[in-house]
Request: fold
Amino acid sequence: MSLRLEDFSTYARNTWCPGCGNFGIERAAKLAFAELVNEGKIRRENIVMVTGIGCHGKIADYINVNSFYSLHGRAIAPAIGIKLANPMLEVLAFVGDGDALGEGLEHTVFAAKRNVDMTVIVHDNRVYALTTGQFTPTSPKGFRGGSTPRGAPEEPLNPIELMLVSGATFVARAYSVNLNHTKELVKQAVLHRGFAFIDVLQPCYTFFDTYKYYGPRVYDLQKEGHDYADWDAAMTRAREWNYGGEEAERIPIGIFFKADRPTYEETVLAGRNLRDTSVSKIGGILQRHT
Amino acid sequence: MVQEYSVLIGGQAGDGIRLAGNSVARLFNRLGYWVFAYNDYQSLIRGGHNFTVVRASGKRVQAHRNKVDIIVAFNQDTVEKHGWRLKEGSLVIFDSDSVKAEGLGLPLTGIAKKRNLPLIVRNTAALGALASTLGLEFHLVEEVVRSSVRRNVEENIAVAKEGYDMSGGYKGFLQVQAVDNPPRPILSGNEAIGLGAVKAGLKLYVAYPMTPSTPLLHYLAGNADELGIAVVQPENEIAVIGIAEGAAYAGVRTMVGTSGGGFCLMVEHLSLAGQAEIPIVIMLGERPGPAIGLPTYHAQGELFFPIFAGHGEFPRIVVSPGDAEEAFHLSAEAQNLAWRFQVPVILVADYSLLESSFSSVLDEGRVLIEKPKTWRGGGEYKRYLLTGDGVSPLAFPGTAGVTVKVNSYEHDEYGVTTEDPVLTVRNAEKRLAKSRAIEDELREKETVKTYGNMQAETVLVTWGSTKGAVVEVAEEHGFGVLQPLYLNPFPVWEMEKHLPGRKNIVCVEANSTGQLARWIMFHGFRVDRTILKYDGRALTVDELEEKIREVGA
Reply:
């Protein structure tokens, strides 16, 4: 029996604002899951979502799959543990920009460095929304919010660039309005063997409405013949837009970079199954202590 | 009269003092003695002053004495800093190439150099000389070298023989007699904790290096293949506990190890384990604080910290072993309890427990992997099903037909976020029910240990490795000793049995505020005196003798 989007819904009442970019990500994820299961590429019970805290995190309540609703900035570390414990699982961390690029930045960088076979989806609305509008690591300089009435004093961080230098083996950007494109990227990220990172540009209708900003600027890398096997080319494309403001003319979305590298868990586990419950004998070791 | 001997080996960092101490301990072990080895080292890699005191006795000893029978000195510092430890009839064995002293001087550096061997083989030459002064046959030295040296084994044996043959008039200086006992495994607290956890099903150890827990990381990593476990070292302690919690959610028994500073970083995740009901064991190694404090020294400053750490109210268990055997069994019990109740369990262990070595009799057969409450199918799975004891059946992701949702927000039975006041109360009461169930379970377990004369007017109450000196002194003076193995929930039912009616209740611990004393008083019991030591060094038997006299116990 073929699964539909509705099959991944829960009874939880959705509390995102009308017009929130999170709806696009939720829909794209559900569709991606349904299609991947229908295509026989993954098993539904093997999907695990790990989320941080922020508006994005509510997605754990809204999608009917296994989930670990973690702390602010702390989705990625548990995700790594889940993958080590059971490499059969399809582990996806749904994270916020403040969450995974601010509070928990180190885990994001190290998960990429290790090439853990997992997917990170950043709900990048470039604002702390649940705390009513402060600047985040990806907000443009000069962003006016509750904590920066005169404008944010910092230059934004470019997560695409950061992931490229950190060793991520699948680096992409999506725009939550482009549902089909986002869904396809999620599917490819899940099927990618290694650390996959998708920065999803997601307007926050209430605190940072970027619909009009992104709409005319985004373009699809894959339609312009970008070679995602070329790291230098990926870096050039990544720098085409530095998460700034009005001065930018074009914002690339799609896959920047893709590579094949051994995964963390296959190196660390070397074939060992940690769920094996047989008891280890320590007699030989005790003998050596005598 | 029980025979006992103490040997101090001292030198610079890099001289291999700890290994030398281990060899001396093995030597006595082969003669049937109980051994205890205390390691004192500084937070540096080369230079400085390190020493190990090995105490061997015909009866069980778990603390060292100030005075020693033999000092083995690889540098001048050792002679100068420890001269006060010598008593009448003590001997100094020293490297005459670099140390000036009276006693048995041997050209240890020369012995190494002429064979083109690294200077570390001075240890083996000294071991040979020491064995000779103890009046031992050389084959014992050879056995110890073969069992402890990995490289240049034959050269080391030759070097040991050379040292053995050079003791001259000091041969048989002390006539050490064998005791009729089989050799026992010599384990540090770190090693025992690792082995106990593995016997209770540990499959993943996660840690970031920090004294005094680092040896546990090295030990489990070094033996990972034989033990069938994985060991990982992530970017920091926050990742450490996050990774462990993720693995536990997916059904794997884990442990993390750290010290106070690292535990500080883990505390938010500790609270997550309380809310999301994730089984996790945290090994908290104590060293003197605050902040970086004395990184490589001894303290028991973390009694309240693990009990009260974390925001919000949630059940947790805190266990406190006092020697390697207790460390082995409590580490195993910590795993089983964490999974039985789906709570964080903190195993708090002081420096001297973790880094000292103890002759240990381990009962491997006594440790079982207790099966947690698991979902048996039928109906829809609810991760947080409300039950009488607050413990919901576990299922793990990857199970067909089951959705496992864990949540750091307050949640309903399925694990979906809620802010409903009724559900909020229900969940708080679920956590309270667990606390009660934990206490009921602990009432059936050994939660305190007693030693000495428990009818005496004076009872010494202590925790952690301090019990080594306390038990020895109490037995000598006819006092009783009460040692809680569980700090939270605190075994008040045992305190009620042992404390009321005592004339003189004395708490002995390695901190400046008397945390155990305060915790006992918090539970409504009286404490008359405290004996506190907070100079970063473990309490010795002689020191406690003196302090007992001072307080007039």
Q: What stands out?
A: Strands of chain A lie at 47-51, 66-69, 90-96, 118-124, 170-175, 195-201, 218-220, 251-258. The first helix of chain A runs from residue 22 to 38. Chain A touches chain B through 58 residues (CB under 8 Å). The first strand of chain A starts at residue 47 and ends at 51.
